[in-house]
Specification:
Layout: H1 5-14, H2 23-66, H3 70-90, H4 97-119
Helix pairs in contact: 1-4, 2-3
Length: 123
C-alpha cells in the first residue's frame, strides 16, 4: 500500500514557511499591507485618469487635423506624448505577472487546505 505522505510533502514544499514575527514586526506588517493597498489604489486612479486624458487629447488632435490647424495639432500631439511618458512611469505594465501571482496564491491556499484535511488539524 502506498503512503499518502508523498503528495502532502509536495504540497508543503509549495507553501513557503513564513518566519516567526515578534509583536513589533507583526504590528508593522499589519500596517504595511494597508498602506500598500492605498498606494496601489491611488496609482490605479492616476493611471485611469491619465488614460482618459490621453484618449481625450487624441480626439482633440484628430479635430485639429480635420480643421487643418497644424499649430494646434502639433501642440496637442506634444501634450499626448508627455501624458504617455508620464503613464509609462506611473502605470504598471500590462503583462501576465498578476496571473502568475494569483496562481501562486491559489496553490499555497490549496496546500494549506490539504494539510489541514490530511492531518486532521494537527499541523
Amino acid at each position: 500500500m502506498r503512503s499518502g505522505l508523498a503528495p502532502l510533502v509536495f504540497l508543503l514544499l509549495l507553501a513557503p514557511a513564513a518566519p516567526a514575527e515578534t509583536g513589533d514586526e507583526a504590528a508593522a506588517s499589519d500596517e504595511a499591507p494597508a498602506a500598500q493597498s492605498e498606494e496601489r489604489r491611488e496609482r490605479v486612479r492616476s493611471c485611469q485618469t491619465l488614460r482618459k486624458q490621453i484618449a481625450h487629447f487624441e480626439e482633440v488632435a484628430e479635430r485639429a487635423r480635420e480643421r487643418d490647424d497644424e499649430v494646434w495639432e502639433q501642440g496637442t500631439e506634444r501634450h499626448v506624448a508627455s501624458l504617455e511618458a508620464r503613464a509609462e512611469r506611473v502605470c504598471p505594465p500590462d503583462d501576465d505577472d498578476g496571473a502568475f501571482a494569483a496562481l501562486g496564491r491559489l496553490a499555497r491556499g490549496a496546500a494549506r487546505t490539504a494539510v489541514r484535511l490530511f492531518s486532521a488539524g494537527a499541523l
